[in-house]
C-alpha cells in the first residue's frame, strides 16, 4: 500500500470512530431520562400532582411510547432541527438555542483566538529555555492559575478592571445592534477569564509535549552533528511536534466548554451556558439535553478535526510505504 | 524521612496548608465564633466589631460560615474522591486481570463517558436526578472514576505480567489476593499522586456547581455558594465575596504543590 492510501485509510477510520462516538453520546443523552428509577414526569411535577397532569406530561415527553420508538422519533425530529419544546415556557427549544448560540460561539472563538497562539508560544519558549527563570516563572504561574476556580478569576478581573478601574462593563451582553469593536470591548473580561484558564492548561501540556520530543535520540543526534539550536527546533523537532501540539489544543477545548458555562453566569452573558444552567435548576430536561448535545457535538467534531489534522501532518506516515 | 527531607519549599508550604485546612474542618464547631446558619444582624455589615469579616447577604457571620464551609466543602469533595477511587481502582484492576468481555464493555463505556467534558454530563445528570448532596456525590464520583479506571487498568497491566506475579500465581494465590498483595502495592505511587489531582478536580467541580446554585442546599455554608450569595458586593469594589474563592484556590494550590512533589518522587528522582 502506498503512503497516501494508508493515510486516507487512517483518516477514514478516525472519521468513522468520531461519528460513532457522537452517536453513542446522543444515545447516552437520550437514555439519561429513562435511567431514572420511577417516572420522570412524576419527579418533575412532584408528589402533589394529579394523575391527569402526570399522564399529560408523560404524553408531552413521549414516555407512553416504547423506548426504541422514542429514540427514533427523537433522533428524527432532531435531525430535522426540531429539539422539542421547553417544559418551563413551552417555547420551541430550537428558538431558545438559536438566540444564544451565536453569543457563546463568539465568546469562545474570541478566547480561543488569543489563548491558542499565546499558549503555544509560551509552551514552546519555556520548553526551549527549560529550567531558566522564565520557565520557572511561567510554570509556577500556570500551576497557580489551574488551581483557581474559574469564577474566582472572573470576579478578580471584574473587581479590578470593571469596578475599581472602570475600563470594561461588569455585564458583558452587547445587545443586538453593537458593532464589532463594541462587542469585543464588552466581552473582553469574560474572554480574558477564559483565556487565562485555557492558556494555563494548554501551555503546560505543550511544554510537556515539546520536552518529551526534545529527549528523543534523533534530536540529540542532530545536536551532535553541530546543527544550530534554531534549526534543530524548526527543521527537526517541529514537524514531529505538530501532531502532539494539535492534540493538546483539541484536548484543552474541554476547558473552554466548561469555562464558558461559569463565565457566562458571572458576567450575566445570555449564551448557551447560562441557558443550560437555568434549565438544570428548572429541571427543563429537553433544553438541557439539547444544550448538552450541542456542546458535545462541537467538542467531538473539533477533536475529530484535530485527529485528522494530526494524522495528515505526521511526516512519518507520509514516507513509510506498506 | 524520604518524604519530608528533600522537599522543596512549595511542597512544604502545601503540606502545612493542607494540615491547617484539615484542623479547621475537623474542629469547625469549636473554632467558629457563631453557628453556620445563625442570622445575627443586618445584611452586608462591614468588617470589624462583632463580626471580624462582616456579615453576608442574610446577616450571617461570614468568618463562621467560612470555617463551617471548610467542613462541608472539603468533606463532600473528599467523600466523592474516595468513592470515585474505590470504584475506579477496583473496576480498573479487575478489567486488567480479566481481559475479556468485562474489560471490553467497561473500557468502551469509559471511552464514551470521557469523550465529552464531564461538566456536561454532570449537568445533564443533575437535571434528571435533581439536586441534593447524595446525588451530587454519586454523579461526580461515577463520572470521575473513569479517569481512575484508566490509570488503574494501565498500571495493573504493566505489573501483572511481571515474574513475581507469575510466581504468586504458581504458588496458588487467588486473583483477589494477587491484586491486593502483589499488584496494589506496586501501583500505589501513581494512584496516590492521582488521588491528589482527582481531589482538586472534584473539589473545583463541586465548588463550581455550588456557585451555579446546583450544589449543596441552603443554608449549608459552602464556599462556592458563598461567592454567589455575596457577589453583589463586588460591584461596589468590596473583596469580601472573593474570600471563599480564595479559600478554594489556596487549598487547590497546596494540593497541587504536594502532588507535584509526589509525582517527582514517583518518577524516580530524575533531574
From TrEMBL, chain A:
Keywords: Cell membrane, Membrane, Transmembrane, Transmembrane helix, Transport. CDD domains: TM_PBP2. InterPro entries: BPD_transp_1_N (IPR045621), MetI-like (IPR000515), MetI-like_sf (IPR035906). It is found in: Cell membrane. One of its GO terms (biological process) is transmembrane transport. GO terms for cellular component: plasma membrane. It is a multi-pass membrane protein. SUPFAM superfamilies: MetI-like (SSF161098). The chain crosses the membrane at residues 12-36, 105-128, 140-163, 183-203, 241-267, 287-312. The keyword Iron does not apply. It comes from the Bacteria. Residues 101-306 form the ABC transmembrane type-1 domain. It holds the Pfam family BPD_transp_1_N. Belongs to the binding-protein-dependent transport system permease family. PANTHER family: DIPEPTIDE TRANSPORT SYSTEM PERMEASE PROTEIN DPPB-RELATED, PEPTIDE ABC TRANSPORTER PERMEASE PROTEIN. This is ABC transporter permease. It comes from Neogemmobacter tilapiae.
Amino acid at each position: 500500500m502506498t503512503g497516501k492510501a494508508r493515510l486516507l485509510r487512517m483518516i477514514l477510520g478516525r472519521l468513522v470512530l468520531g461519528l460513532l462516538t457522537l452517536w453513542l453520546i446522543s444515545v447516552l443523552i437520550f437514555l439519561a431520562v429513562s435511567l431514572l428509577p420511577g417516572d420522570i414526569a412524576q419527579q418533575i411535577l412532584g408528589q402533589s400532582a394529579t394523575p391527569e397532569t402526570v399522564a399529560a406530561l408523560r404524553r408531552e415527553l413521549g414516555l407512553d411510547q416504547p423506548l426504541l420508538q422514542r429514540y427514533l422519533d427523537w433522533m428524527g425530529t432532531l435531525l430535522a432541527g426540531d429539539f422539542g419544546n421547553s417544559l418551563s415556557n413551552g417555547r420551541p427549544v430550537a428558538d431558545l438555542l438559536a438566540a444564544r448560540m451565536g453569543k457563546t460561539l463568539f465568546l469562545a472563538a474570541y478566547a480561543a483566538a488569543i489563548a491558542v497562539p499565546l499558549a503555544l508560544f509560551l509552551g514552546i519558549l519555556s520548553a526551549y529555555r527549560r529550567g531558566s527563570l522564565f520557565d520557572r516563572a511561567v510554570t509556577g504561574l500556570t500551576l497557580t492559575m489551574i488551581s483557581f476556580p474559574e469564577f474566582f478569576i472572573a470576579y478578580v478581573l471584574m473587581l479590578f478592571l470593571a469596578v475599581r478601574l472602570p475600563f470594561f462593563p461588569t455585564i458583558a451582553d452587547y445587545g443586538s445592534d453593537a458593532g464589532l469593536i463594541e462587542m469585543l470591548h464588552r466581552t473582553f473580561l469574560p474572554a480574558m477569564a477564559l483565556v487565562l484558564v485555557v492558556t494555563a492548561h494548554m501551555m503546560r501540556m505543550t511544554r510537556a509535549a515539546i520536552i518529551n520530543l526534545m529527549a528523543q535520540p534523533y534530536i540529540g543526534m542532530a545536536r551532535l552533528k553541530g546543527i544550530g539550536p534554531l534549526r534543530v527546533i524548526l527543521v527537526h523537532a517541529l514537524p514531529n511536534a505538530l501532531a502532539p501540539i494539535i492534540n493538546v489544543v483539541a484536548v484543552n477545548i474541554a476547558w473552554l466548554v466548561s469555562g464558558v458555562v461559569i463565565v457566562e453566569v458571572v458576567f450575566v452573558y445570555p449564551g448557551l451556558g447560562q441557558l443550560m444552567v437555568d434549565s438544570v435548576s428548572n429541571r427543563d430536561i429537553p433544553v438541557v439535553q439539547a444544550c448538552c448535545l450541542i456542546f458535545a457535538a462541537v467538542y467531538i467534531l473539533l477533536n475529530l478535526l484535530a485527529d485528522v489534522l494530526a494524522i495528515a501532518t505526521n511526516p512519518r506516515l507520509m514516507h513509510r510505504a506498506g | 524521612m524520604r518524604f519530608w527531607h528533600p522537599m522543596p519549599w512549595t511542597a512544604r508550604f502545601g503540606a502545612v496548608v493542607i494540615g491547617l485546612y484539615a484542623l479547621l474542618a475537623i474542629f469547625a464547631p469549636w473554632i467558629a465564633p457563631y453557628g453556620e446558619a445563625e442570622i445575627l444582624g443586618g445584611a452586608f455589615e462591614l468588617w470589624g466589631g462583632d463580626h471580624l469579616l462582616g456579615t453576608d447577604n442574610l446577616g450571617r457571620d461570614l468568618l463562621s460560615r467560612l470555617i463551617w464551609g471548610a467542613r462541608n466543602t472539603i468533606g463532600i469533595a473528599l467523600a466523592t474522591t474516595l468513592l470515585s477511587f474505590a470504584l475506579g481502582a477496583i473496576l480498573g484492576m479487575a478489567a486488567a486481570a480479566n481481559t475479556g468481555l468485562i474489560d471490553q464493555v467497561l473500557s468502551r463505556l469509559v471511552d464514551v463517558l470521557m469523550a465529552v467534558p464531564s461538566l456536561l454530563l454532570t449537568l445533564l445528570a443533575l437535571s434528571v436526578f435533581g439536586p441534593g448532596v447524595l446525588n451530587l456525590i454519586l454523579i461526580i464520583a461515577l463520572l470521575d472514576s473513569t479517569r481512575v479506571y484508566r490509570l488503574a487498568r494501565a498500571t495493573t497491566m504493566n505489573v501483572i505480567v511481571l515474574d513475581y506475579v507469575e510466581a504468586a500465581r504458581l504458588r496458588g494465590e487467588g486473583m483477589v489476593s494477587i491484586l491486593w498483595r502483589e499488584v496494589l502495592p506496586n501501583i500505589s505511587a501513581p494512584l496516590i499522586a492521582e488521588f491528589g489531582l482527582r481531589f482538586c478536580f472534584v473539589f473545583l467541580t463541586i465548588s463550581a456547581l455550588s456557585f451555579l446554585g446546583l450544589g449543596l442546599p441552603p443554608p449549608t455554608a459552602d464556599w462556592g455558594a458563598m461567592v454567589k450569595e455575596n457577589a453583589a458586593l463586588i460591584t461596589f469594589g468590596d473583596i469580601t465575596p472573593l474570600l471563599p474563592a480564595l479559600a478554594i484556590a489556596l487549598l487547590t494550590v497546596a494540593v497541587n504543590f504536594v502532588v507535584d512533589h509526589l509525582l517527582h518522587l514517583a518518577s524516580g528522582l530524575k533531574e
